[in-house]
User: Fold these one by one.
Assistant:
Number 1:
Amino acid sequence: MLELQENLQAVRQRIRAAEQACGRPEDSVRLVAVSKTQPAAVLRAAYDLGQREFGENYLQEAMEKQDLLADLDIVWHFIGPIQSNKTRLLAERFDWVHSIDRLKIAQRLNDQRPPGRAPLNVCIQVNIGGEPTKSGVTPAAVAELAQAVAALPRLRLRGLMAIPAPTADEREQRAAFRRLRELLEGLGMPGLDTLSMGMSDDLEAAVAEGTTLVRVGTAIFGRRPPAKG
Ligand SMILES: *Cc1c(COP(=O)(O)O)cnc(C)c1O
């Protein structure tokens, strides 16, 4: 618990220092705590330390935690790959979906967003390095998809998300994040206010390139057990 508190403070401090280093205002970057594989009790502990936004990758696992934490005022972000037969639950249970990579998924989320709720916040995931095995749309396909998603009334398109190939070279980190920022700016669409980029190992580079939302897991919760499906 003490370790969680220290980690969370350290991550907030890293974000603040990075904001200061490039002259950005304090609190211009929102912190989503990526809690995949962590039990509900750990999320509750982070909540008690002031963390409100959590990111999950696996729907089934997320739903179990959502049920256990229904008494808390959490903003839930879905950041994992989307199967089209799971869109209804995503539309019902999340506040944000970061990983839109095709129009069919967006249309289903739009149709399935419950009428009583605010439009679902979404980002389009971009395969910024063009790696064949990675999910996300190609940079060349972003503009067309963004126009189509923006026209869906039950979704609110907020911006772009990327998971660049890991590298320890800060210039390469920044180059990838810069490409995502330039893509967003190039869309020239009003209302897009979100760059979802930056994780435990590269959040400083992301802040320097204008991220508005970092997704941080390991630096808050410690190393995860190997990923499950
Ligand atoms: C796991 C994950 C993160 C967090 O990564 P860390 O390196 O643990 O900070 C961020 N974004 C996505 C999409 C993830 O799957």
Number 2:
Amino acid sequence: MSPGNLFADFTVLVVVVLAVAAPPVSGQRSVYPSANLSTLWVKNKVLDSVPYEDGLVRAIVLRSPQTSDLSFAAGFFCTPPCQEFIFAVFIFPDTDSFPVNKMARVVWCANQASPVGENATLELTGDGDLVLREKANGRLIWSSGTSDQSVRRMEITEQGNLVLFGQRNMTVWQSFDHPTDALVPGQSLLQGKMLRANASPTNWTEGKIYITVLRDGVHGYVESTPPQLYFKHELSRNMSQRDPTRITFTNGSLSIFLQSTHPGNPDESIQFQEAKSTQYIRLESDGHLRLFEWSRGEPSWIMVSDVMKEFLHVDDCAFPTVCGEYGICTSGQCICPFQSNSSSRYFQLVDERKTNLGCAPVTPVSCQEIKNHQLLTLTDVSYFDMSQIIMNAKNRDDCKQACLKNCSCKAVAFRYGQNDSNGECRSVTEVFSLQSIQPEKVNYNSSAYLKVQITPSSDPTQKKLKTILGATLAAITTLVLVVIVAIYVRRRRKYQELDEELEFDILPGMPTRFSFEKLRECTEDFSKKLGEGGFGSVFEGKIGEESVAVKRLEGARQGKKEFLAEVETIGSIEHINLVRLIGFCAEKSNRLLVYEYMPRGSLDRWIYYRHNNAPLDWCTRCKIIMDIAKGLCYLHEECRRKIAHLDIKPQNILLDENFNAKLADFGLSKLIDRDQSKVVTVMRGTPGYLAPEWLTSQITEKVDIYSFGVVLMEIISGRKNIDLSQPEESVQLINLLREKAQNDQLLDMIDKHSNDMVSHQEEVIQMMKLAMWCLQNDSSRRPSMSMVVKVLEGAMSVENCLDYSFFNANSVISAQGNPSTYSAPPQESILSGPR
Ligand SMILES: *[C@@H]1O[C@H](CO)[C@@H](O)[C@H](O)[C@H]1NC(C)=O
Ligand SMILES: *[C@@H]1O[C@H](CO)[C@@H](O)[C@H](O)[C@H]1NC(C)=O
Ligand SMILES: *[C@@H]1O[C@H](CO)[C@@H](O)[C@H](O)[C@H]1NC(C)=O
Ligand SMILES: *[C@@H]1O[C@H](CO)[C@@H](O)[C@H](O)[C@H]1NC(C)=O
Ligand SMILES: *[C@@H]1O[C@H](CO)[C@@H](O)[C@H](O)[C@H]1NC(C)=O
Ligand SMILES: *[C@@H]1O[C@H](CO)[C@@H](O)[C@H](O)[C@H]1NC(C)=O
Ligand SMILES: *[C@@H]1O[C@H](CO)[C@@H](O)[C@H](O)[C@H]1NC(C)=O
Ligand SMILES: *[C@@H]1O[C@H](CO)[C@@H](O)[C@H](O)[C@H]1NC(C)=O
Ligand SMILES: *[C@@H]1O[C@H](CO)[C@@H](O)[C@H](O)[C@H]1NC(C)=O
Ligand SMILES: *[C@@H]1O[C@H](CO)[C@@H](O)[C@H](O)[C@H]1NC(C)=O
């Protein structure tokens, strides 16, 4: 690769940044070396086009040392076509060409794994945290994690170190401590830290190659399990047991120190050439560590040395990705492995025109067919990784056998001297580039064995055997099959019922099917009861780590087929405001449903003050109302098939840890076809929440809107709609509402337990108007659920001329019996019962 190519790839544009808190003053340099707390910077194209004094480009903090040709800045960065940006420290020649500066080079970066887009913000917050977000108050991308550490200001130093200073100029955080892929003069790499190369010259993502400082020197690895060592520079002097090792890049050399406390003389120094301060060193995606220097004459960056190659003597062919995966490097050329005495090809080039992208096995190696594994022999080929020695395989055959026995072994390299039976066997779990060697030059022999998957037919002798075997097997198999079929047909007649069970096991798109035993186990024999309804009880259980609610339907009359059909329908409905059906069980007469567990139980607990709980504040109530509305809206309007819930009431609204509300027991009601939406004829639901049209005519999803209106009033008033403990005239909430609405005394309806509610009177009254809209007698005058959502979002207002003469079907029905023990008329589906 020529240096010219390299630079073309790294061209980078510096992007304009506007300091919102400190607008630039015309005629003054507006970017300072330091910034104060509580400052926000936005990356914004529109604002960027404002012509600033120093052109189109601006950094966040910038410093131009007097003593050097180079300046450092921290700001937003991109590579063309500039859709994505990183927050970086970059180095650039402080020429007149700045700020339209194509000569900038990144030496540190905060967010290479997740670049940000337009309108991203960087903020030095009031509590001293440096925070990068997707947009203002958007997703957190990166942070220095320094809040509560008394940070006073941010500064870029003369060396290009981005520092957060605390009290008395103490360094709280610095970019030098978190190097990415480059070092600038004066920067150290401490023991345990690493430089990690990018994935490719055009891809900022972190790549697989890194170098790190360990106690005994500098090591270079390519990531895999375990990591493979491709480079190692061991200290020639004795290692200290106590002091950590570090390497420091000073102009012109890499110095290795065994103490980090005082600079002193390095324990070892790798001199490159004449000292210059206009340099930086970078680990590149091909694993090379290169030294770059600003040349004022050109003017451009030039690569002045390939440090690993020139000073640490790593061979060109010894880099892990020089020929891609499985490629063999022969003095800079790449070829695919092949077996000279065989016509079959086991490897092919990934890209015919680019041999350095490597090779891929024609048949991938599969651990399932371990008997079809063979080793492809490559003579005079070695592998770079020298770390994974198999101790008890000193001769060639043991080495090969060890690899064939272990599925994670993808190749072995066997290195030996004159005596074949005293070698070193190294196993490789992920094969990167191989290299061919000349034994007389390197003074050792080496063979590599690559594991390949053979297709059994490729071997002629085996083929013959297979044919004979195959014919015999086929005959036997046919015979056995005939017998099995005969038995099966007889059984089938006998056990029709049993067959039915099998038949439904594999319906596509179904929730998980559990055995009764499994559910008994996970609910600890149905011991923790969460609640009870007319049609069964709900128990708490645990499947793996997940808490679930298991509903056991009692007195199941429904056929398995109908049950499974309903389960399939419910299982296919997913929305954040609907309780998720996880699984079911249909075994013999047992019918169970497994739902996600909702830790705060049902809404009635919270609005009727059953548990001496504190009143919910207005904000939480609004959130719950919105959640219910969205859940219902989904069922009515967004689902593939229109679904009316038909049993909306607080008992069927469940709350999670954070008071997010979800509807339960939906879909247990009859589905309404989109075309003929008036189909329900049998009365159902729960008294108190029944719409007037239940008494008279055809039922549509508008009955849910009525019930929603009732629930809304309950949430606002903090009481049950039919409450026998109240004085006679106010037993029925809806009757009371009619009276108060007609007399303009709506304020009386607000929950008195909550001061927060009382202080939000205005908003509460608006919510009551929405409730009254939903309670209109004439179902066609009620809003649709999507209109309700719009009103709640403030995008629409409530209909003006409301009819306050709410007719109460529930008073008629409740007159027939005691409302608290009343149970609804026969249900169509056993699944549809209230909790
Ligand atoms: C930071 O604050 C100091 C004093 O409070 C002020 O002198 C300086 O100009 C401020 N720096 C910037 C970049 O606003
Ligand atoms: C960035 O913000 C501006 C103004 O606030 C806005 O007009 C523009 O649409 C936003 N761009 C993106 C991609 O969000
Ligand atoms: C901290 O550093 C700044 C600038 O480098 C300097 O002006 C200030 O005097 C220093 N303060 C202390 C307490 O050393
Ligand atoms: C960048 O590299 C990563 C990791 O190798 C890869 O997942 C991603 O697809 C690459 N992105 C582009 C744009 O090539
Ligand atoms: C290195 O140091 C250890 C103890 O720290 C000592 O035992 C050993 O002899 C030393 N080796 C050399 C080569 O100096
Ligand atoms: C770096 O180079 C400059 C001259 O360019 C020299 O003054 C300085 O002493 C050098 N630093 C080191 C650590 O060699
Ligand atoms: C090819 O040669 C290798 C060793 O040189 C030997 O082990 C293998 O059996 C040979 N394969 C064929 C198909 O002759
Ligand atoms: C298989 O090889 C891997 C990697 O070399 C090694 O970690 C593992 O212990 C080996 N397994 C056995 C059973 O030898
Ligand atoms: C390589 O092996 C051959 C015998 O197979 C032997 O003659 C030769 O000396 C070995 N070469 C080295 C460098 O050990
Ligand atoms: C090779 O080494 C083994 C044991 O280390 C020894 O028995 C054998 O004689 C040696 N062979 C040769 C040719 O040196």
Number 3:
Amino acid sequence: MVLTEKDAKQLDRDDSLSRFREEFYIKPNTIYLDGNSLGLLSKRAERTLLESLNDWKEHGIDGWTRGQHPWFFLSERLGEMMAPLVGAEVDEVIVTGSTTVNLHQLVATFYKPSGKKSKILADELTFPSDIYALQSQLRIHGFDPDTHLVRVKSRDGRLLEEADIIEAMTDEIALIILPTVLYRSGQILDMNRLTGEANKRAILIGFDGCHSVGAIPHSFSEWGVDFAYWCNYKHLNGGPGSVGGLYVNKKHFGSAPGLAGWFGSKKEKQFDMEHTLTPAESAGAFQIGTPHILSLAPLLGALEIFAETRIENIREKSLKITRFLMDLMDQELSDMGFSVGNPQEDLRRGGHVSLEHNEAARICKALKENGIIPDFRAPNIIRLAPVALYTSYSEVWTAVQVLKKIMVEKQYEKFKNEREVVA
Ligand SMILES: *Cc1c(COP(=O)(O)O)cnc(C)c1O
């Protein structure tokens, strides 16, 4: 069956999430397919940011406890709002820090090398910041990252096999850190299975959820995941530098935070100003210092939108619209040197399509010149993320037609095949 523009329009009419599109600032004549790097601003996120600024204007110091969004409880309140997105109880999630800082906190808390059980298991495809954090944590403990950071190998440079990861869970491993969804290929790891295997071996396991939270459902608590951390500026549309998310399984409440600070206090105790920390009996214990209020505030509005639908509905559309994109690529651009680098099965693919092409860097530049916003990951990947809340099927249709024109006319040849500073 040949797909046509009419099909795209019909899919838009049938889209039960289409009402959310008008909530977002979408620039005319651009098609934004980069919501997996930085989600777009919604009117509600803008509103809650402005309300928080106004709380400052109106209340000064009293904004901590008064005003529309009292700052003292904001991280906890946002944790509650986020809990359904990760399958957690409300006090198991806190919005604090950033991805990398939260990873440091969690490793400082949960990495307890003992005798031979002293290594950390990660993978060779993971995001560099996570690796830097793990290497430095190992050094702090006096270990050599070359021997103590074990990286599971990929068989094809794109995907990881769960069986290979499980095989690497030896009795030398104290802690496992893995992505929920791989940032390049978009592969979803089987978190349930991996957690089960780690639990069986008494190895703690934590996940980096940057590319999955807000895009796919999770059941962290049901699966028995020990901890997780993620950023809120990608699929959750919290804004550039938005404060991150942190999950700690209830069974670990009461663990002393590795990196302690006064915002980890039990709320009622914090202003007693004692020199002995009384940690919160929740994920809140893993906060460090004063939260970045103006980078938390947009999340109030951004998460309101998620509360009006179900993450399962978001996932359903995401699967459908990414499949539509892949089918169109197949139909329109099959002989242009592209290959799809993400897994094909729905269970194993996340919220973006990962196209590989030798000229990827300059094809991305040509796309941008034509008003299509992709992102490029060196050396040869074009990531395209049609976002369930605001991308339409018609936009995907147009994006593929534009890409076809770029390829047929070889428009990309006028650009250098090199990445930009930020790519
Ligand atoms: C985006 C991303 C990060 C970014 O970390 P920050 O501390 O927010 O800069 C880390 N890990 C993964 C997998 C990411 O996709």
Number 4:
Amino acid sequence: MDIRVRKIYEAEFALEDIREIFREALPTGLDEREAEQLTAGIARVDAIIRELKEGKGNPIKYVDDKIELRTREEEYININPIQSGGRLTPEARKALIAYGDGYSVCDKCPNGRLDKIRKPPVAEFHAELADFVGMDEVRVVPGARRGFQAVASALLDKGDLVLVSDLAHYTEFLAVEIAGGIVNEVPSTEKDIITGDAVADKIERVKEATGKLPKLIIIEHFDYLFGNEHDVYGVGKIAKEYGIPFLYNGAYSVGMVPVNGKKIGADFIVGSGHKGMAAVAPSGILATTDEWAPKVFRSSQMVGDVTGRRFENKEPEMMGCTLMGGTVLSMMASFPKVKERVKCWDEEVKKSNYFIREFLRIEGNKVSSEYPRKHTLSKVDTRDSFDKIAKTHKRRGFFLSDELKRRGIVGEFAGSTRVWKLNTYGMGWNKIRYLGEAFIEIAAKYALPVE
Ligand SMILES: *Cc1c(COP(=O)(O)O)cnc(C)c1O
């Protein structure tokens, strides 16, 4: 533990306490008692800053009473498979401090539409965001899953078929399920890749068996199980040929990998704010074309029978407004950096491959994902290496987690020494090298041969 990290938190919290004095005071200014509180509060911040400078003092452990501080991004290298792309930028953290209040984005809402708010520049953000993923229209949604749900709800009738991959995320299943549809899985190749041909083949089979075409195809660019890249361009082409709308699931790509929906041939692009766009959860995006926008982003038609009220400016699939505060503001604040970082995707892949290459120097280590890697999320197999050690170690499967934690590495599923996932996204070369060396050091300690 680095005391300075705790002192930074403590200072930030002390500043929030001072901020609260202003929130409770009259707009005319602080009264005598409040002014005294402010002076005392500033003195407290000063004292904490002094401890921060000197690197000493009592480390705080809690945000409040029972909520523990979270310091894993400050004090560790975090290899958790789902957390790396959603790590906030400093800009997003600042936006969260300023816009954390509930409906904070609604200060100047001219017509009851989130995507039309100009201050803060939510409307401008929407325009840029559509451009960023190469589509015509976009809405922010509470997670990629809510994007699937909106599309499934708009497009499906009861009993309609939807093609998904046999590596599909569970949220695709659920989105189709609540819309009354039925999923049909496209089998991946023996290399765990979904191809355009496999999709075409499944369409033909479905047509033969039911006499109907699927109503929607949902395929991920990179799946969550292996982080393998699937042939979304091929799928886009097949979808066009059959005239079936194609939803590109970019949960593991939008915000990290350059994505152009029109080039891919997608009708819908779904991204995850908290998985790939350095944003607060739950957040995500749903983008579409001018062709599909009137269907998915249609206006409400409902009329109240007593009052005659209607809400034509609200979009039912969005439930009106979606992200009304810290979530959308964090997305917006991170966006300039997100736009830049997708340009460095090749470098991220290079680092991922560097790490895996080092990892594979340990005898018995394998990578279950496609190799060379095309993504930073990888599934590794350590049954013939670390798991052999685990069998006789007194800490059993926990020994690897212990050894990693001792070296400041966390995020792997504790107790898993068999087949597990890790993600190197966003690590600098210094961390990548350190990570590789850490595994080799652990192998050497337990006399596993290293090439
Ligand atoms: C994480 C993930 C999702 C779900 O994303 P949310 O933004 O949390 O809803 C969907 N699909 C895939 C492939 C994922 O990896």
